[in-house]
Design goal:
Belongs to the enoyl-CoA hydratase/isomerase family. InterPro entries: Fatty_acid_synthase (IPR003965), HotDog_dom_sf (IPR029069), MaoC-like_dom (IPR002539). One of its GO terms (biological process) is fatty acid biosynthetic process. With about 300 residues, the protein is of the alpha+beta class. The protein has one domain: Thiol Ester Dehydrase, Chain A, CATH 3.10.129.10. The chain is built from six helices and 13 strands. A hairpin with a 2-residue loop joins strand 6 (about 130-140) and strand 7 (about 145-155). Helix 2 (about 50-60) packs antiparallel against helix 4 and helix 3 (about 70-85) runs antiparallel to helix 6. The longest helix has 16 residues, at about 70-85. It is globular and about 45 Å long.
Length: about 300
């Protein structure tokens, strides 16, 4: 695999603008072997302490000398998105649906540490609604891997040549657990999260920009929802693994019922982990329509074999 070393971490706004300029290309089908054999890398990256403090304040979290896991995801995400914005990437960036994240946060990372960021795409495969792909991201300090994640994305309506789409798997009826919190998200939530982590995807920013991409209203960033959940569920000072699956998007403005649960109670579909001692589940849902927005789990690293990022 060819590694492209980037001069600097790309600006996400510029990548989305680049994708918008190429959005006239309509992709209906892709070949199984069409992913570019390329990885991207950015070196000597320093975390902005100002952005980190803004992130912690946005979430109402304590200011610690420890970088939150979702903040690390946001730090490496522009390197991964650079791959999706390339002209030779087979799937369209705009309109891609974020399905899930699977992360191993191997040890606490200090804000003062210098990072290397790496990303590549793999495993183009069929989905009942189109074609999905994995984005593999890694954060290193020197030669030490400190964080790795697999983000799963779906290109709806794009067929994978030579594959037939599977039937939808039946899901059990969603039975909400006892509420432990209620999040009230105003119309500016997407913009404020974007200002901290730079993810200016137009589906999150305003009513006008969301409608241009076919949505009725802007929706919350999936990683904002993950960050809010991990604020309650993730430990501090140790390594851990976490995963989240997304179901119905959270429209802005809106509210989310939230609960910490056992890991087995948190599933929105197949693929979540079995309950392990020391694990914590979480789930967010729409109280009015009684349908899940997301669910996931956090597991101590010693127990995390079943929820690893799968980056090997």
């Amino acid at each position: 695999m060819q590694t492209v070393v980037l001069d600097k971490v790309p600006a996400l706004g510029a990548l989305y603008a680049q994708a918008a300029l190429g959005a006239t290309r309509r992709v209906r089908r892709v070949a199984p072997g069409s992913l570019p054999d390329v990885s991207a890398e950015a070196r000597e990256v320093r975390i902005s302490e100002e952005s980190l403090i803004q992130y912690q304040r946005l979430l109402g979290d304590a200011v610690r000398e420890e970088v939150p896991s979702v903040f690390l995801h946001g730090t490496v995400f522009p390197v991964a998105l650079w791959l999706l914005a390339r002209k030779d990437f087979p799937l369209p960036l705009l309109g891609m649906v974020h399905l899930s994240n699977h992360v191993r946060h191997l040890r606490p990372v200090r804000p003062s540490e210098t990072l290397t960021l790496r990303a590549h795409a793999r495993d183009l495969r069929v989905h009942r609604a189109g074609t999905q792909v994995d984005l593999i991201s890694q954060v290193l300090v020197g030669e030490e891997l400190v964080w790795e994640g697999r983000s799963v994305y779906l290109a709806k309506g794009v067929s994978l040549e030579g594959s037939s789409r599977p039937e939808a798997e039946p899901h059990p009826d969603f039975v909400p657990p006892a509420t432990t919190g209620r999040w009230r998200l105003d119309a500016t939530t997407g913009r404020r999260f974007a200002e901290v982590l730079g993810d200016f995807n137009p589906i999150h920013l305003s009513l006008v920009s969301a409608k241009l991409l076919g949505l009725k209203r802007p929706i919350a960033h999936g990683m904002y929802l993950a960050a809010r959940a991990l604020k309650s569920a993730a430990p501090h000072g140790v390594g851990y693994a976490w995963e989240i699956e997304f179901a119905v998007p959270v429209q802005l403005p809106g509210s989310v019922e939230f609960a910490l649960t056992s890991a087995t109670q948190s599933s929105v579909g197949p693929g979540t982990s079995d309950e392990e001692p020391g694990s914590v589940g979480f789930v967010g849902w729409d109280a009015r329509k009684v349908r899940p927005h997301f669910a996931g789990s956090v597991v101590p690293l010693a127990l995390a074999a079943t929820v690893g990022a799968g980056t090997d």
